[in-house]
């Protein structure tokens, strides 16, 4: 019975987009449709997560009753169910925020007739990517969400957004070209694009052919995940969009790339060992991203650089090639999706209330809006890794896993035949990760101190070492400040802040769930048995 729910996670958003488009200018009806669809997907994901967690396996659905590998197969295991439910909750929260913003601004930033259908199509692409059982369907999921993201990124039609959109489109097309080329080569070498079947057939190829195919896929997914040195495009693309769009992009789109990398390492190439490469890239992503954040005066660009930087934690966890490292990575992905989305929504409130997002133009916000001060402070400290928040717990989990891998702890379970990288390299990345956390905390505390604690009367002529080294965003501009903020925007942001706190309160059960999901990924045969219960040739 629950098998029938799996396709609905993609079908409902697509049908909802069609209905929203037909409703045209009936704004309230469109809002109701979008909200109902995302709430339904979140409920379905919760049901499926409960079932696959209880069974310890997963669900595979053959679309159109065409058996795999001949038809499209949708697969839900613990990891994909976790990703869908957290994504649906974020998409729902951002939608409520966008509705509140649209009502207040007469839908200048998010025109209803365009925004809601496109937003639901983006959601369908994200959900499809998480449950795709073959590489081509994964590619289709990427293209659906990317096509929708082009529209959302350029809403408003300003010159800055068009320029950012062009950059984003070019980079995305290059990524898609790598991915499509990799799929063609994989199919030519193995005769299939089914992920479960590829898990068996790729292992039969010569090692040099495997390495080429592996690296092609990692380049494609690395661009989407914004890992160094493939992250140059992100800080100039995301900050230009409306606040709800930026929040969704920052919270979800890069994590789809991270998810694809996890699948690649645990199912497609479980016998390949690129741990050292992952550790090096993870360390560089951490360092380069946070150094970029230090120089930013604009909070949107600062958060964009921290987004790049904290992807490094996830790449580091994958590079540990252990069940514990992967479990900590899954927990950190959940944390980062929620906290990064919440911070960008709060930044939208700051821009409305203060008229700018630059620390050189903001002051006195704590006195003017104590609630806004709290809404920014809590997720900022969470991202900075202050105990006992989920950011601290996730980083500790990663560092402890790194220490166990470097120390050769007997209880450490590895993924497939992979082995962790050199001990000195693991300890180096752990040190970089700890330093990155401290620098993240410094950068966010600097912004909070100047924007919220500094009296507004001191803005003119203000000089401080805190801002002497920062630079403004290109084409940065002020907006008209509105001292009243719609209730829906505040309520949505507060709800997501509460969700980030729940990740701390329920960290124990979430870590256990993440560990069970990682345990499923320890052996690729678990995924294969979900799709082919009788075995695969």
UniProtKB/TrEMBL annotation:
Keyword vocabulary terms for this entry: Cell membrane, Membrane, Transmembrane, Transmembrane helix
The way this protein sits in the membrane is described as: Multi-pass membrane protein
Q: Where is the NADH:quinone oxidoreductase/Mrp antiporter transmembrane domain?
A: 132-404
Q: Where are the transmembrane segments?
A: 6-24, 36-67, 79-100, 112-132, 138-156, 168-189, 209-234, 241-262, 274-295, 302-324, 371-389, 424-445, 487-511
Location, primary (coarse class): membrane
A GO molecular function term, named singly, is: NADH dehydrogenase (ubiquinone) activity
**Could you tell me which InterPro entries the record lists for this protein?**
CPA3_Na-H_Antiporter_D, NADH_UbQ_OxRdtase, ND/Mrp_TM
Q: GO terms for biological process?
A: ATP synthesis coupled electron transport
Cellular localisation? Cell membrane; Membrane
User: Mind naming one GO cellular-component term on file for this protein?
Assistant: plasma membrane
Which PANTHER family does the UniProt entry name for this protein? NA(+)_H(+) ANTIPORTER SUBUNIT D1 (PTHR42703:SF1), NADH DEHYDROGENASE (PTHR42703)
The entry sums up its family as follows: Belongs to the CPA3 antiporters (TC 2.A.63) subunit D family.
Name of the protein this chain belongs to: Na+/H+ antiporter subunit D
Q: Which organism is it from?
A: Agromyces bracchium
Q: What is the lineage of its organism?
A: Bacteria, Bacillati, Actinomycetota, Actinomycetes, Micrococcales
